[in-house]
């Protein structure tokens, strides 16, 4: 198989400015290849914050895309390449995150 079944995590940021600092999901220490984030937030207001900020790999810090966490939006990006963060959320922000991994190497192979 090209990839294993995804690992999943349901998360809620409780508003009040809750956020998650910039990071890369896989800095070479595990088998995650793709990250998928699906948003579960109905009627997300423009002033609700909580955007997913994606930084362009190898680009300047000013090269980013903010994705509003609106209902039924799906974002997919490379786990090893794309630095990202959750900007401060000002209301409860729900997301289902999934990580698709490459299969582990067979026994006796690197």
Structural class: mainly beta
Helix tally equals: 0
Helix fraction, binned, reads under 10%
**Whole-number mean pLDDT:** 91
**Which residues sit in consecutive blocks of at least 5 with pLDDT less than 50?**
none
The biggest sheet amounts to:
4 strands, antiparallel
Q: How far from one another are the termini? A: 17 Å
H and E string: EEEEEEEE
| Strand line-up across the major sheet | 1-8-3-6
**If you compute it from the alpha carbons, what radius of gyration comes out, rounded to the nearest whole angstrom?**
15 Å
Beta content comes to over 45%
Shape: globular
Explained architecture:
- The protein is an all-beta fold and 110 residues long.
- It is built from no helices and eight strands.
- The strands form two sheets. It has a four-stranded antiparallel sheet with strand order 1-8-3-6, with no helix packed on it. Strands 2-7-4-5 form a four-stranded antiparallel sheet, with no helix packed on it.
- β4 and β5 form a beta hairpin.
- It starts with 6 loop residues before the first strand and ends in a 9-residue tail after the last strand.
What's the gist of this structure?
The chain has 110 residues and is mostly beta strands. It is 0% helix and 46% strand.
Describe the secondary structure blueprint for this structure:
Elements (H helix, E strand, L loop, with lengths): L6 E8 L3 E6 L8 E8 L12 E4 L8 E4 L6 E5 L5 E6 L2 E10 L9
Antiparallel strand pairs: 1-8, 2-7, 3-6, 3-8, 4-5, 4-7
Structural key phrases:
110 residues, mainly beta, four-stranded antiparallel β-sheet, 8 strands
